[in-house]
Specification:
The protein has 60 residues and is α+β, with helices and mostly antiparallel strands. It has two helices and four strands, in the order E-E-E-H-E-H. The protein has one domain. The longest helix has 9 residues. It is globular.
């Protein structure tokens, strides 16, 4: 019913803990002065954990 407030890695679906280093893929905002940064990230960003980034860089 309600969406989870946890952030997940888009590759391995691991829950990303608060304070954990991540890589984020997001679009440049259309408007200036975004005040709700957390909401913008939750709606527009794709998060990758460091383990998945290491694997993808190793495969290149």
């Amino acid at each position: 019913m309600f969406k989870s407030k946890h952030t997940h890695c888009v590759v391995c679906k691991k829950i990303i803990q608060p304070g954990e280093n991540t890589f984020v893929n997001l679009k440049n905002p259309k408007r200036k002065g975004i005040t709700e940064i957390k909401a913008y990230l939750r709606l527009e960003a794709r998060f990758y954990c460091t383990d998945c980034i290491k694997v993808s860089l190793r495969n290149k």
